[in-house]
């Protein structure tokens, strides 16, 4: 019985020693993990937790080759009652006091400021415990959890470049220019918010057919980067003509090219080469009367799309009554703008009071106009036919 | 010097919102007009 008591006493003592040993080995020092861009200044926090009561601690920091340590500073919360010292020569940090106290505060005890390296990658930051003790000069075991600096791949510099150009074949004369932009800002082109589709940012400039050879400037910017592209509608037409990739568009683009080039010579010197075509359009009609208003004449305006105009003899004071635009004291007109090439044979009905006019824009060709004007309208008619055929395919 | 060729994404044959098209006029508005014709 006496020997059994001795054995039990021994077991209890061993168990108590084991418990006491766990109680003094509780602290943890965690070094943070942070992300950085190459070359950035980055702050790595050092946190002390599970503090059993600390009278002093001394650490030596270490890290993988790459980052440069520029500062070791006191943290915001942990070991707050102890004095702090550090050295960039020995990479050492020390907390201590001459008082017989145990500091029990947890939290950030230091921050390490590094300059991140230029090369992307992960760089471990760790520490070696030189010493850690309580007010009775008993050692405190500290588990050190390393951290790291993660240097991200540098984002490529934003670029803004002109990448493409084409035509919108909607019956008008226009140039569409694309820009590729890799940044995150807002892109404007010629001062307006850029539009965007699957091919990139773009803007469209429409011109009169006679101006199709004039260079157009497209300038895109995000406020910092700028890219410009100069191109004429004629230049873009040239990319498609005889280009096998655009076989389906050949007839239409060629007709557009002819129409524009003839408009250019017509408005420059009044001449147009002979065009072999018979313009088919509904015969226009005008019926009815209206007091104070008489029909005068009809014209086409060859802008990027065609406009149809009917002129009337009417006092300027009465023009507004019929929604007419005043030309002078005794003349005014009604205009139907933006008529696509495919729609030029459609009859447009006009009612001015009791006067009714039915007129398809292409009927202008059959009003007994001079040969040059007739040839130009025939070229427009050929464009119309190709636009209709293209839309049908 | 080689001629610079830009990509031509596609010819478009779609209806297009005319508000998105900036029309540039190099002359006054009526310079594109054909002669008015008296008829009827």
Number of strands of chain A: 26
What is the percent of helical residues of chain A? 10-25%
Distance between the termini of chain B: 59 Å
Shape of chain A: rod-shaped
Q: Summarize the main sheet of chain A.
A: 6 strands, mixed
* Average pLDDT figure of chain A: 91
Strand-residue proportion of chain A: 35-45%
Give the overall pLDDT of chain B as a whole number. 64
CATH architecture term of the largest domain in chain A: Sandwich
Low-confidence stretches of chain A: 7-23
In the CATH scheme, the class of the largest domain in chain A would be Mainly Beta
Structural class of chain B: little secondary structure
Overall outline of chain B: elongated
The oligomerization state is heterodimer
Number of domains in the coordinates of chain A? 3
Q: What is the chain-wise order of helices and strands of chain B?
A: E
CATH topology of the largest domain in chain A: Immunoglobulin-like
Total number of helical segments of chain A?
5
Uncertain regions of chain B: pLDDT < 50 for 5+ in a row? 1-5
Biggest interface, which chains? A-B, 63 and 33 residues
Q: Could you explain the architecture of this structure?
A:
The complex is a heterodimer of chains A (393) and B (40). Chain A starts with a helix and ends with a helix. In chain A, α3 (250-269) runs antiparallel to α5 (371-392). The longest helix of chain A has 22 residues, at 2-23. Chain A is of the alpha+beta class and 393 residues long. The model of chain A is unreliable at 7-23 (pLDDT under 50). The relative contact order of chain A is 0.10. In chain A, a hairpin with a 2-residue loop joins β14 and β15. Chain A has helices at residues 2-23, 233-240, 250-269, 316-319, 371-392, and strands spanning 27-31, 33-36, 41-49, 56-63, 68-74, 83-87, 92-96, 107-115, 121-133, 142-145, 147-151, 160-166, 174-181, 188-189, 192-193, 195-197, 200-207, 216-221, 226-231, 285-287, 293-302, 306-314, 325-328, 331-339, 348-352, 355-359. Chain A has 3 domains: 2-151, Immunoglobulin-like (Sandwich), CATH 2.60.40.680; 160-240, Immunoglobulin-like (Sandwich); 285-392, no CATH class. In chain A, the strands form 6 sheets. A 6-stranded mixed beta sheet of chain A has the order 2-11-9-4-7-6, with no helix packed on it. Chain A has a 5-stranded mixed beta sheet with strand order 5-8-3-1-10, with no helix packed on it. Chain B is low in regular secondary structure and 40 residues long. Helix content of chain B is 0%, strand content 10%. Chain B has no helices and 1 strand. The N and C termini of chain B lie far apart (59 Å). Residues 1-5 of chain B have low confidence and may be disordered. Chains A and B meet through β12, β13, β17, α2 and β21 of A and β1 of B.
